[in-house]
histidine kinase
Amino acid sequence: MERQGGYEMKDAGAFTTVQIPRQAVATGMAAGPDGGHPHAPAGRKRRWSNPLAAVPLGTKLVTCMLVLLVVGTMGVSVAICQMADNYLLQKTDSQLIRQARLGITNATLLNNDDQDKTAGTGPTDYFLQIRDEKMNVIVNELNTSGANGVISMPRLPANGTLGQVALGKPFTTPAVVKVDAKTTPDSEAMQAAQAPWRVVAMNWTLRNKLNGEEIRGVLFIGLSMSDQIETVHALTSFCLVICVIVVILGGVISALLIQSTLAPLKRIEKTAAKIAAGDLSQRVPSLPENTEVGSLAASLNVMLARIEKSFDEQKQTTEKMKQFVSDASHELRTPLAAIHGYAELYRMQRDYPGALERADESIQHIEDSSARMSDLVADLLSLARLDEGRGITTTLPVDLTGVVRDSADDLHALDMDRKITCGSLQVDAGLPDDGDPGHPALGAVSTLTLEEGPLPEIQVVGDPSRLRQVATNIVGNIHRYTPADSPVQIGMGLVQAAIPPDILATLPSTDASLARFMEAVQVSQNSKVGDGYVVMQFVDHGPGASAAARSRLFERFYTADPSRARQKGGTGLGLAIVQSIIKAHHGLICATETPGGGLTFTVVIPQGSPDEAARAAKEAKASEMAKVKVAKARMAKTKEVRGSHMVREDGLPGGGEGKRTGPDEAGAAGGSAEGQVPGV
């Protein structure tokens, strides 16, 4: 045995067993030297092709929320400002058109109204210009005097031309600002004066009251857009402030919400780190399973429970294997040592007088040790085949009643003075307060009682030889370890239980497992739903076994009294073989204490349907017939090949110089005849 890199290696002939520490499996093989891939080179950090892969999830979510808030609030603000601007522009155009329709008749009224205004924030009054048919300016009816000596007027086409102005359609034109040299306007007044104008050109017609002639021309009326621009600017500033507030509040709230949402994931991460450190008992805190994190936590807890169970089973299997190898070595060493000792004793005493008589005794001891070792090897081989699923066929029809009856007869033949009682097993579910046996009492525990009489006729689907081996081994234990005059009860019966055979096969051979099966029987009696099972009981009244010993009766090489077992010829593998056979039949076997002293072996196996048994019997018969046909074909082929060898070397039939090469001569020559089928 040598150690390489902290791992223990044992070399046993052609096989090598490597024992890896549990923490090495959880940590060293789960991550590499830098926490990355386990096969990554030491001292080399993994580089990600996508830079965003190294950014934490919480940071990504908060950043995405902030980007969405900024884009959303900016989009809403731009839409609101654009809508307000369009609305104010439409309102200004409607006002201009309405004022233009007043025409020249209201020009004086408008002019007087503007002259009465002594206050204002800027040149926001109407501008009116009248031109004749030749586009010559006749009069500017409104004097657009602004605050602090600032005068703002719209830029219109030159005198005598209309330019590209469309009549009846409002248009925007820059302002022409004039400043009185005697005043110094402030920036607010200049900004308002520089605002563009909204102007509309309309045709006008007046009739001269003196001669009745019509006078035609074009009327320009405009309104400064300073108020509209100021309103839009104020609204834009307000929207920007709201956007900033919304983004800040949204970022804080989203950060808190994401942090609280990701907190269970942080706990899962910490739990995973503890598990990676080797503590497989850690579990993720449970959350409501209707949430994603809660569903993930539930799935992880199930996975962790299975992993821990697998590690525990692996540990138990390793311990059992070590104990098995140790026990097997010990059991094999004992007869080998006896053989070696008696052989050496015979060699030392063969020259002394009376050596022949003593030789017979030594040879007898050697034969006994060899027989014990042969039985032990046969049992080990049987267990190995059962563990691999070989050497057993559980699809054949079995007369279980005949198997149990034969085992009772065998026990009676071994112990003539023993009283053996057979009968059928019945389920006693307890009585309720009203005394009706059809309704079990609340909290009552179902039990099995033996009614003396003939064994019930029961057919099951299984392996006949293996089930007979089960009954034989149990009866053999009763014969070996109980007094020859102690009574024995053997019973069997059919029950229904609300437990699947696959679940039943996973239960350990303990009293608790039998109690669970009886609870399933009681549930089936109440619900009238369940699978059919055959229950067999072998009850003895011998010395029995303690609770600790009963829990280990089905372990390999376990015997409550090793010295007594060797005297009786036991190897400690009989009950282990019985348990393997019952597990292969998806059943359960338990050893419980008999009331008054002794052991009670209870065997439970699924009955299987009659159709399944008939189909299995038909398939077995067809398989036997196919084997017979194959054997006949091989025999015919062998005869044909043997006949082909009775020819001369030149290929001509008859005697003369031809040399016969029969199968006997060919075999004597050291080889087999050509074309001969071996083994027939």
